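Researcher: Next entry: DNA-binding NarL/FixJ family response regulator (Tahibacter aquaticus).
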Amino acid sequence: MVVRMSDSRYREITLLIMVPSEVATVGLTVALSSRSELHVLATALSLDDGLVALRRQAPEVVVIAPEWVQTARQFLLETDIRTRLIAFGSRPHLGANAHATSQVACGYISYFVQAKNYLPLIDLVSRCQLPTMDAKQMLCLCCPVRQSLKPPKPNLTAREMEVFVAIGKGFGASDVATQMGISVKTVESHRESIKSKLALGSAWEMNAIAADWCRGGSS
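Model: Predicted structure:
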């Protein structure tokens, strides 16, 4: 399906940057300067300053830290300001926040992605004909930018992946053992291997990451 975009070649698209890292903010601002149609109205290193700028400027696009997305969403609902959000964070992907963020933001960009790779994503969001992201809109659901919100497939063996998906669906070790026809001890061994490969510090963290990965479409 073709995603229709409004013709923004002859008009300026306004942006606000709300990111707590000054280095990341400067880098993003410099990168955006290569796009003549994109105009950064303001930058904010704190959530409070960002919300003030949101109210005053009402930008069309906001590039925002993932941890501020939900607060910004509530603020936008209360003020009836319509804008499109792009999450911009320090992690390679959204991990356990992917599902919640995907209900609010158009896409996700990591600090560590080169500008030449993320600027096309910002271009697509800035040219979208919708005033705000709507997870129920077919135009949003089919938008290629949404692929950036999905965590990558973990680097696990096929057997570990089965255990990982089962954990994400809420099954305990004994249930997983029964489903897979293996012992509980073997399941626990797979769990420890998964934690090690994904650099997870606890069973709770692994459960959270696995559940979110499943919500991204593993099944």
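Model: Note for the record: The chain has two domains: 13-149, 158-215.
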